[in-house]
Amino acid sequence: MASPIPSSTVTDVTSAVAIKAEKVSVYYGSNLAVKDVYLDIPEKQVVAFIGPSGCGKSTILRCFNRMNDLIPSARVEGSIVFDGEDIQGKKVDPVELRRRVGMVFQKPNPFPKSIYDNIAFGAKINGYQGNMDELVEKSLRGAALWDEVKDKIQESGLGLSGGQQQRLCIARAIAIEPEVILMDEPCSALDPISTLKVEELMHELKTKYTIVIVTHNMQQASRVSDRTAFFNAVATDQGGKMGYLVEYDKTQNIFSNPKEEYTRDYVSGRFG
Predict the structure, then answer these.
(1) By the 8 A CB rule, do 246 and 9 touch?
(2) Domain count across the chain
(3) Distance (Å, whole) CA 101 – CA 157
(4) What is the number of other CB atoms lying within 10 angstroms of the CB of residue 234?
(5) CA–CA separation, 229 vs 213, rounded Å?
(6) Does some domain include residue 186?
(7) Can you spell out the DSSP letters for 201-225?
(8) What is the rounded distance in angstroms from the CA atom of residue 66 to the CA atom of residue 88?
(9) What is the CATH number of the domain that holds 217?
């Protein structure tokens, strides 16, 4: 049965807000993909987006650093404020925004370069003037990878295991000193041991960065996040799906005492 679209779902956030989304809707052509999302992403916390496929989790995530700009048919409405400015404004440089709001994708995508150059490449493009050797080591340490690769940093990043490649991509992201790191299903292609290492890394990184993660793994969301946003979708007259935010709260509340019946049904495994 289709769910009615709830009124704006906002929960008070006591810490400073890193990103504030108000009435954000995303269209692909004439199709409304996600409707009226309100979210406050608090600084230096991990926020998880959960929900069934096609509910708009990744679509909203990509709004936060304007990755949807790369899709010709995409159109974003509403307000997304970062550092006091609506990021969709004409004065905002998307390239600079993506330096400050980094992204780690579902499938590890290291450059076909050495481990060292994977880290150094983005820093050079962004005009880094400091000691590159120190930056590479600091970034790899920050991604809990240095001890594993310090003797082979001139070897190709493509020779690493899947889990190591994903941590290399995280190291590459933090090398350019972002304020926010977006992670789109970062562990879905990894084995359980590598997944655990990435989850442990998230706990360490949130002391310095704000992290937003999309995950289909509810156990992962409950382990790594401070707050969780549950999205759902309804069928449209065009035969597609329209996503919407059902509930956003502290992770403990979402999983143990959700306010909405749809949230309760999803986290209990009744659908999804």
Answers:
(1) yes
(2) 1
(3) 23
(4) 15
(5) 10
(6) yes
(7) HHHHHTTT-EEEEE-S-HHHHHHH-
(8) 8
(9) 3.40.50.300
Q: What is the DSSP letter of 114?
A: B
* Report field, pTM of the whole predicted structure over 0.85: yes
Answer whether residue 178 shows pLDDT above 60.
Answer: yes
Nearest C-alpha neighbor of 117 from the set 173, 155, 161, 150: 155
Sheet strands (E) in 14-120: 17-28, 31-42, 46-50, 74-82, 85-86, 101-104
Strand partners, 76: 26
Asked if residue 44 lies in contact with residue 15, where contact means CB atoms within 8 angstroms, the answer is yes
Burial bucket for residue 22 (CB in 10 Å: 0-12, 13-18, 19+) = middle
The rounded Cα 112 to chain-centroid distance in angstroms is 24
pLDDT per residue over 22-69, tens digit each? 999 999 999 999 999 999 999 999 999 999 999 999 999 999 999 999
pLDDT at 99: 92
pLDDT tens by residue, 8-34: 454 555 579 999 999 999 999 999 999
**Residue 230 lies inside a defined structural domain of this protein:** yes
Distance CA 220, CA 50 (A): 10
Residue count (the chain): 272
Domain range for residue 250? 17-112+178-267
Q: Where are the alpha helices (DSSP H) in 15-114?
A: 57-63, 94-100
